[in-house]
Design goal:
This protein is mainly α and 184 residues long. Helix content is 61%, strand content 0%. It holds the Pfam family Clp_N.
């Protein structure tokens, strides 16, 4: 499948691996794919992100991702459902971090030793890449571009899609922006 990726999409995948390595993560996740997309400057996805989430709003987006990571990747909807059952996720996170340190629920087992070979992709990250292929095929595009990765991230649900949507980056807004129609 990787041979069908454009140069820009390949750069996103490589960038995601670099983000995972820098962060000491044992696997490449959806979050790493988003961070790599945010690093891009000259691509279709970069243009859409620049339009929908200007650079002055990016720190807020990154902070929301970090907050979700602290909650062990639970989406806000998950936290609200648990709250309806009388479970306060914020209190649990605080208690765990009090005992085990900040970020204890981040879900990333940190890489403490040297690794040989490549970082594996999480099941969710693989699903995003597979969905980007399906998006490209549905649009009758010959190659998978970074815009297909962005569309897949926004359409899959979960924490990354939720954080993007909170910042005005939804499947519909990305699709509209990519097609050149006015957003609103």
């Amino acid at each position: 499948m990787f041979e069908r990726f454009t140069k820009s999409a390949r750069a996103v995948v490589k960038g995601a691996v670099e983000h995972a390595e820098r962060g000491g993560a044992t696997a490449v996740t959806e979050e790493h794919l988003l961070l790599a997309l945010l690093d891009r400057e000259e691509s279709r996805a970069a243009g859409a992100l620049r339009t929908l989430c200007p650079s002055d709003r990016r720190p807020s987006l990154a902070a929301d991702l970090a907050d979700a990571r602290r909650r062990a990747g639970l989406s806000r909807a998950d936290a609200e459902a648990l709250a309806d059952l009388g479970i306060d996720v914020g209190a649990i996170v605080a208690r765990v971090e009090e005992t085990h340190g900040a970020g204890a629920l981040a879900g990333d087992r940190r890489d403490t030793g040297r690794r040989s070979g490549r970082r594996p992709f999480s099941r969710e990250a693989k699903n995003i890449l597979e969905k980007s292929l399906r998006m490209a095929l549905a649009r009758k595009d010959r190659e998978i571009g970074d815009e297909h990765i962005l569309l897949a991230l926004t359409s899959t649900g979960g924490v990354v899609a939720e954080v993007l949507a909170d910042h005005g980056v939804s499947y519909a807004s990305v699709d509209t922006t990519l097609s050149g129609a006015p957003t609103g």
